[in-house]
């Protein structure tokens, strides 16, 4: 069975740490794919970023 884990962080280093922590718990051969995206928007005059990743793995 395939499963997904979604990560969403405001900073790319936080996303990297969260995904690496999750991947460390997977067994060899469980990882299928990782999808990555960045969204940017303006809020109250500031640029806001959203870094997200979806990890697809065998559960």
UniProtKB/TrEMBL annotation:
Entry keyword set: Endonuclease, Hydrolase, Nuclease
GO MF assignments: endonuclease activity
Superkingdom of the organism of origin: Bacteria
A family per Pfam: Spore_Cse60
Keyword Nuclease in record: yes
Protein name per UniProt: Holliday junction resolvase-like predicted endonuclease
